[in-house]
Amino acid sequence: MSKSFEQWQAAAATLAFPHQALIDGKQVAAASGKTFDCISPIDGRVLAKVAECGEEDIHRAVQSARRSFDKGDWSASKPSARKKVLLKLAALLEQHAEELALLESLDMGKPVGDALKVDVSASVRCFNWTAEAIDKIYDEIAPTGPDELGLITREPLGVIGAIVPWNFPLLMASWKLAPALAMGNSVVLKPSEKSPLTALRLAELALQAGLPPGVLNVVPGFGKEAGEPLALHMDVDGLVFTGSTAVGKYLLQCAGRSNMKRTYLECGGKSPNIVFADAPSLEIAARGAASGIFYNQGEVCTAASRLYVDRRIKDEFVAKVVEFGREMQPAHPFTPRAPMGALVDEGQTQRVLSYIEQGKASGARLALGGARVSPVEGGCYVEPTIFDEVKQDAVIAQEEIFGPVLSVIGFDDEVEALRLANDTPFGLAAGVWTRDINRAHRMARSLRAGSVWVNYWDGGDMTAPFGGYKQSGNGRDKSLHAFDKYTELKATWINL
Ligand code: NAD
């Protein structure tokens, strides 16, 4: 049964906040002794003073990861042994689900109910699915003549640096850690400075599950001071990143300037959601359009931030989206079924508000919202906001806002819809609503995006890869394809 507001508050009052780095299996302060404030955007309260790692800590963590890798307790263990530990970790995450959901909600402001139902349960599924997969992957034998044998084997890369964002802190860490660890790598994880708590807790649980010390190190800290030394480190073999396109591009340069480490990026988006007049249900499509942009306060890489609607139904359709959007007002994240919580911090709130001002100045029609609100004093809350009659080249239609702001644009036919949808440097996701199966397939083929959803938004599971075209990234998380990022392929030829 779901908890009441008061029950969540009571649970939050007894919560312990992890605040130290985890290096070589030990909880440690930063070498400099520095800490940074972990502030809850719910009400501006300081939750914890977290170790602020810098270059020296990163170096210690990489050395520890390297030692553990070379020692082989994990890297040379049988897949069935690694599977056992990762299944145990999944079970521990499940056991601590409410605690993790609370930490996530307090740390980054999302509704605690969503954190429990989506973030934590998807992380549990990620570890379970990956653990179940690893003892079912076979190496290959190359087709050869009778006098030779060609073996194609997968080997772990070695030391992986993982840098993750703040919008789904536990889940983004899980998408990196599960396949990296499953393949036998050792990892140094840098969570976002805006939401470090659940990654630190995850690492404690991983030790408890039996992961050998040094195989997973977590170094909280800022991008320049902690992320960059990791990206430039000569003894990191692979870097996996989820975050903004700007930082992703910079990390590619870091790889070039250092040891050409394998660098895989999952970056930003500006996803088009295309509604044709023959959508199976305008009601369902409108609800999908509203939740596609307002879920998680719009802080979703696949947020349906550009809505393209057939001009013949646009006014009627936008009215419905406005109606559903109006129901999604932000509330204290402990409120049962809160549709939106707080934005991650004051900086992000100001960023979103400045885009809203640019939207107003662009001549677009403000159809809903457009202001900061205060369901909780001292918190970071912005209304669900919808701009209609947005110009395709307007800043709000081109740049990733990462907040609850929707841009609506009309189209006359399929050709125009496709042209407008693909007119973006991003290519993460796209949605199409139509009853015409031929059109659905034509659109899905031609949309330059890593995920296409037909007649719903945000489908997905561990069974399918997730990632971006164009400047939305160059790798894939989830599914067996994710293992490619964490392994080298070796060809061994034997003369018979
Ligand atoms: P960000 O790029 O600002 O930060 C991401 C991480 O990179 C953080 O840990 C940060 O500390 C670190 N970082 C920042 N500067 C760095 C530097 N110079 N060197 C090394 N590390 C550095 O992104 P964010 O604001 O945390 O997250 C929002 C972005 O993440 C959005 O663009 C969103 O679309 C994207 N995102 C993408 C996906 C996906 O799967 N494609 C999923 C979630 C979020």
TrEMBL record:
InterPro entries: Ald_DH/histidinol_DH, Ald_DH_C, Ald_DH_CS_CYS, Ald_DH_CS_GLU, Ald_DH_N, Aldehyde_DH_dom
Pfam families: Aldedh
Domain annotation Aldehyde dehydrogenase: ranges: 31-491
Gene3D superfamilies to which the protein is assigned, alphabetical: Aldehyde Dehydrogenase, Chain A, domain 1, Aldehyde Dehydrogenase, Chain A, domain 2
GO molecular function per UniProt: aldehyde dehydrogenase [NAD(P)+] activity
Top-level taxon of the source organism: Bacteria
PROSITE patterns given in the database record: ALDEHYDE_DEHYDR_CYS, ALDEHYDE_DEHYDR_GLU
CDD domains: ALDH_GABALDH-PuuC (cd07112)
Keywords carried by this UniProt record: Oxidoreductase
Active site: E266
Protein family membership: Belongs to the aldehyde dehydrogenase family.
Full protein name: Aldehyde dehydrogenase
Species: Pseudomarimonas arenosa
Lineage, broadest ranks: Bacteria, Pseudomonadati, Pseudomonadota, Gammaproteobacteria, Lysobacterales
